[in-house]
Amino acid sequence: MGGRKRRKMKLLDETISNRIGANEKNDKLEPQTWSDLPTELLELILSRLKLDDNVRASAVCKRWLSAAISVRVVNQPPWLVYFPKFGNLFEFYDPSRQKIHSIELPELNGSRVCYTKDGWLLLYRSRSHRVFFFNPFTRELIKLPKFELTYQIVAFSCAPTSASCILFTVKHVSPTIVAISTCHPGATKWVTVNYQNRLPFVSSIWNKIVFCNGVFYCLSLTGWLGVFDPQDQTWNVLSVPPPKCPENFFAKNWWKGKFMAEHNGGLLVIYTCSTDNPIVFKLDQNNMIWEEMHTLDGMTLFASFLTSHSRIDLPGTLRNRVYFSKVRFYGRRCISYSLKDCRYYPRKQFHDWGEQNPFENIWIDPPQDFESFS
User: Fold this and answer.
1) 218 falls in which pLDDT band (50, 70, 90)?
2) In the chain, N or C terminus with fewer CB closer than 10 Å?
3) Which of 238, 239, 305, 237 is CA-nearest to residue 270?
4) Other CB atoms closer than 10 Å to residue 283's CB: what's the count?
5) How many CB atoms are closer than 10 A to CB 355?
6) Each residue of 360-374: pLDDT tens digit?
């Protein structure tokens, strides 16, 4: 990409020099307009714009439309992968095309999913205590040391092909002690260390874990945040009161429909409760409080029990919504909630997340060449 830009800038310099030379010969400088911008310069400018601005610029004229489309970047949403109760046929649902891809993955037989990131699955076999990474799009498998996962959630920082990849899990020992276990690809064993804990944080199977800004954030059942720094090997419970929810949320097992995601270095929490509309909160890290969001400003959230994702620059029909891990109407419609319209799509398709098997499905980053995936 760098070489392409340098060639464009060189061509731009030559174009400008030629035009100046021609004007000097005529001793007359013709008036210039925005439509006279060299194509190379126009593409360079449009490539720096966000998707919304790119679309607006494309409406100027046919020439600008062609240039805008040539540099327009539209992200792909994650896919929802379903783990079968029997057999090895896995289904991957693409919400942008409302299409299901099916593929046999015998490598995953007898395992349950723990987490996803960068297109990789983290899986666990309870009978053998085997933990391993698997990329369903390349079929690459990376084994890890055995480890017994009981009532705890495990997460990882980045793709296991990266030297900085680290796995993390936290387990309740007592009200004042938590056991934190870490590992990395290539290690021969997991390392477990006990840390002083501060109530009211209590670790459980309902934890939500996100790696953000170099640390692991762990949201407890009741909404308190614990932070583990893998570099400094420290554990702290932040003095951030849980998000304020309506009283009726507490009467309806609201914690079963709680999700956490990262976006541009910030933390987002989604609370759902039966037929009530979901509420999205963002952590104000300066004032250390949770603020309710009334708009997503074009962002899209994809929520599932184990891993949630955020996206920007998606096709227009997918923006400003929270997509949940439930597909209706024979695999054609994914349940979503629009903050702009304050309603579910399809209408009245809310779901009791406490009734769903948390290991039934999970969002995963799709392959770049998804057309060849089948």
Assistant:
1) very high
2) N
3) 305
4) 21
5) 7
6) 999 999 987 766 666
Identity of the residue numbered 135: N
Contact 98, 322 (CB under 8 A): no
- Any idea what DSSP says for residue 289? E
**pTM exceeds 0.90 for this model:** no
Question: Of 208, 124, 221, 211, which is closest to residue 162 (Cα–Cα)?
Answer: 211
Closest CA to 117 of 163, 82, 167: 167
Count the neighbouring beta carbons within 10 Å of the beta carbon of residue 50: 12
The 8-class DSSP code of residue 88 comes to: S
Return the closest-CA partner of residue 364 out of 32, 135, 124, 189.
135
The arithmetic mean of pLDDT across residues 90-97, rounded, is 91
Structure confidence at residue 28 (pLDDT): 52
Cα distance between residue 374 and residue 366, in whole Å: 12
Cβ atoms of 108 and 364 closer than 8 Å: no
Kindly provide the b/e burial profile for residues 285-309, where b requires at least 16 CB atoms within 10 angstroms of the residue's own CB.
eeeeebeebeebeebbbbbbbbbbb
Average pLDDT on 343-364 reads 79
- 40: enclosing H helix or E strand: helix 39-46
